[in-house]
């Protein structure tokens, strides 16, 4: 692999995943939930991570719309995180801080 290819932001896998998203339309899906499932699968594949998820904020709670586990090849839904006891995490979200946590147990926002 040339030095140029090693330093590219996108590689062939990323390109193919983006193309898959681009070619998708709302008519390809039975429901909005199926769209979230596609997004979480593509995020997991594109970032080469075992789990990815999509959450929405409802009041003082975070609701898991879809969590994809690549190892199990399954989607999970309906987890809820309540803000009580997780003030540091919720304040970071409200302030727009991008939380990148390689280890949720040691990250200052996710402990």
Overview of the structural elements:
Strands 1, 2, 3 and 4 form a four-stranded antiparallel sheet that branches. Helices cover 36% and strands 21% of the residues. α2 packs antiparallel against α3 (32-47). β1 and β2 (61-69) form a beta hairpin. It has 111 residues and is of the alpha+beta class. The radius of gyration is 16 Å and the shape is globular. The chain is built from four helices and four strands, in the order αααββββα. It has helices at 3-6, 12-23, 32-47, 87-94, and strands at 51-58, 61-69, 74-76, 80-82.
**Could you say which overall geometry the principal axes of the C-alpha atoms support?**
globular
Which class of secondary structure composition applies to the elements? alpha+beta
Given as residue ranges, the uncertain stretches (5+ residues, pLDDT < 50) are none
Radius of gyration, in Å, reads 16 Å
Strand segment count: 4
Q: Strand-residue fraction?
A: 15-25%
The average pLDDT is: 81
The level of helicity is 25-40%
Note the total helix count. 4
